Amino acid sequence: MIVGIIIGIVALILLVTAGLSVKIVREYQRVVLFRLGRALGTRGPGLVFINPVTDRTTWVDLRERFLEIPRQTAITQDNASISIDFIIFYKVIDPSMSVLEVQNFAAAAQNVAATTLRSVVGDMALDDVLSKREQINASLRVRLDEVTERWGVKVTTVEVREVNPPPGVLEAMTRQMSAERTRRAAIIEAQGQKSAAITIAEGAQQSVVLAAEGERQSAILRAEGLSTALEKIRTVGRELDANTMRLQYYETLKQVGASPSTKLVLPMEIGGLLNSLRGLVSGDSGANQAAVPAGSTGSATLADASGPAAIAPPAGDHEPVAAPVATDALGAGAIPEPNGLQPAASALGEAPVAGAIAEPNGGHQPVGDDSAAGAPGGAAPIAEPESAHLPAG
Rounded to two decimals, what is the model's pTM? Predict the structure, then answer.
């Protein structure tokens, strides 16, 4: 009976000892083993057997963890007081050193982070602290990592969470922000006006260019049309005969006779027309014609173009002969035939009174009313040149 009890007690002790001797270490954990106070290194992961009587263990977590640093007050380079709080992310890379080199890593890291933050912020101006957070994060991470590296801990990231400047600085920042936004708005508005003005100017330039191009094309088309018309007139003019040209002269004489001018300039070619016209008139008024001796001198005088004109007879004893001229029905000025090659304009407007017959030599009688003023429409007779004779009736 007693033996059975002893055996049971021993078995229970063995079971408890076996339970204490076996450790199951996870993948993200390590065990620092101490035997009789001496560090034997790390164990794990998996099953770890230890002597529960002489061995002691310390568990180390290898996963990345974070540490919140409470708000710290620091003074910038330009003597501005600000409050900053940030977060540190770290990871144990050497379990033995993290246990042997530092007693409380969290407290040690917190104090190191506070002193490091004051050192970093003190080297920067307030504007840089507010605008260059990445630079602050990198500086804090490098300096903290230099300290924690000997503890077997790696600082992976430092993030500044909040920066609180003093109230006066906040008010100045608000005014600065408002002024900056006003400046940007003015710049954007000016750029818009500039773009609009450039667009309007470019549109006006294109409009002027298009208008000039249109005018040029129009001028080219008008010139081409005029050239075609002139070519057509030249072609038609080559096919015209003397009678057609004579009719054109008659139409021109009608237009000249209808003019209110008192002086008319006639081309020299009108002499040939008058010669042919005289031949036609001679056939119609043969009973009233008289011969003019050769070598006599005379001049023709044209009165006002708006009424009938008088024709001066040649010098001598012969009576002047009046002949009708094809003029405008409203009454045109008489057209004297040029004397030789002299232009007819030299005798225009010489008669003192419209409708009277000028007598250059004073030895002739005036022509009757039926020949000077009785012509239809007030047509004026034509004076014969001194170098030609009218054929007998």
Answer: 0.46
